[in-house]
Design goal:
binds fe (iii) ion; Urease, subunit C, domain 1; alpha/beta; 16 strands; globular; 17 helices; 8-stranded mixed sheet; TIM Barrel; binds N-(iminomethyl)-L-glutamic acid; 8-stranded parallel sheet
């Protein structure tokens, strides 16, 4: 059924004429452009067959062709007086398929143990792997669906989900099959990433290379054979996987058509960013340890730097230099990293607040970072991430808010009232 939203106080991130779609002009927004947010005040939006068919000012509406369309029977009308409409958030980095929770480690962390110390004691990722291996597909699906429902209410319309708590061939496949089920059941747009190289499992404690061999020779061919993943990830960092391991795994993945999206430079200057760029990664994520050399590598690439302020916040670590990146002309995406160990929240409104307060990004910059740039970082920028004719209608309507900056300002509140995915209310 067609959907008509009228009297929108401000329609956010409309593609200006120069960026009309099609033809595709903009895939992401970087540097100084991130602080210039294209919006339209007192606007309307017209959706049909799940696609954005028209938008403009209310004055244009009463003069234009949409007036006649809206008068036809069967059009659902929404009055958005005082409310704003945004493209729904695109959360390009999560691990939201997991079993149970890890608040015991949270307490250990408060007592002063580091992330690496907890990992070395069999906590961390290995702890989640044990629980996931024991969980049934059905249990995982149930837990994950409730997380998806929770983030949808907070405005997320697209989400990337990684494997990486399986760490055996069977369990990695189980995780990816769960993600495939979620793609079927959930109205959200979902992308799956194979992260077999998330941690070295206990059995390979003294044989990391043996585990990398297993990922390459057994896991990747099966994952690709069943077409279970869209992307491939490696945790390229101190205490986890080296640049050499990462290169071997990425090469094998690329051979099977899996583009990299990697965890890099969270714990150290690991060389992960440069490796990601060299292998044409769609995004490199975390980047707490980033300096001039890394920024330079990114400048010459199409790789999206994706920052996860929730993880650095939760672990009490230094945040990545977002300001420096944007001032150097780079784009930046923000994602939740929703996972049980380092960021047990998928609240993208909170991530926007962290972007402003902890990363010193402007409200305009964080809005770009969680919409069009997030869409690019998960390969859906053609369909999502901005208000453009022809794009999929994944949008959100806020409560009555004074300005768009109110959203990151009012941290901890849910200011999203309605979420529409594919033109349907969810
Ligand atoms: O993105 N950094 C690596 N992996 C996750 C943490 C996973 C966990 O602790 O369970 C992350 O922060
Ligand atoms: Fe992560």
């Amino acid at each position: 059924m067609p959907l008509f939203i009228r009297n929108i106080k401000e329609l956010i991130l409309v593609e200006p004429a120069s960026r009309q779609y099609p033809p595709k002009v903009v895939s992401y927004v970087g540097g100084a452009d991130m602080s210039v947010l294209p919006t339209m005040k007192n606007a309307f939006l017209y959706i049909e067959d799940g696609i954005i068919r028209g938008f403009g000012t209310m004055e244009e509406f009463v003069r234009g062709k949409f007036l006649k369309k809206v008068r036809q029977a069967g059009v659902t009308e929404i009055d958005a007086t005082g409310k704003m409409v945004f493209p729904a958030w695109c959360d390009s980095h999560t691990h939201l398929v997991y079993a149970g929770s890890r608040e015991i480690e949270y307490t250990d962390k408060i007592r002063g143990l580091s992330y690496e110390e907890i990992a070395r004691r069999g906590g961390g990722i290995l702890n989640s792997a044990k629980r996931l291996q024991e969980a049934s597909e059905l249990e995982l699906i149930e837990q994950s669906i409730s997380r998806l429902e929770e983030i949808t209410k907070l405005g997320t319309g697209a989400v990337e989900i990684k494997s990486g708590y399986g760490l055996t061939t069977d369990s990695e496949l189980k995780m990816l099959r769960v993600i495939r089920k979620l793609k079927e059941f959930s109205p959200l747009t979902i992308k799956a990433t194979f992260l077999g190289a998330h941690a070295v499992p206990e059995e390979f404690r003294n044989n990391r290379e043996g585990y990398v061999d297993l990922v390459i020779n057994e896991m990747i061919p099966q994952v690709a054979g069943e077409e279970l993943a869209d992307y491939i990830d490696v945790f390229c960092d101190k205490g986890f996987f080296t640049v050499e391991d990462t290169e071997r795994i990425l090469m094998a993945g690329i051979k099977h058509g899996l583009r990299p999206k990697i965890h890099a430079n969270e714990l150290a200057f690991s060389g992960g960013i440069q490796t990601g760029v060299r292998y044409g990664a769609l995004s490199v994520d975390h980047l707490e340890c980033t300096a001039d050399e890394e920024i330079q590598a990114l400048s010459k690439s199409d790789t999206m730097p994706c920052l996860l302020p929730g993880a650095a916040f939760f672990l009490g670590m230094e945040q990545p230099p977002a300001r420096k990146m944007i001032d150097a002309g780079l784009p930046v995406a923000l994602a939740s990293d929703y996972n049980p160990g380092s960021s047990p929240s998928g609240n993208m409104q909170l991530i926007m607040s962290m972007g402003c307060v902890l990363l010193r990004m402007l409200p305009e910059e964080v809005i770009h970072a969680v919409t069009i740039n997030g869409a690019y970082a998960m390969g859906v920028e053609d369909q999502l991430g901005s208000i453009a004719i022809g794009k999929q209608a994944n949008i959100l309507i806020t409560h009555r808010i004074p300005t768009y900056a109110f959203l990151p300002y009012a941290y901890g509140s849910n200011n999203v009232e309605t979420v529409i995915i594919d033109g349907k209310f969810v």
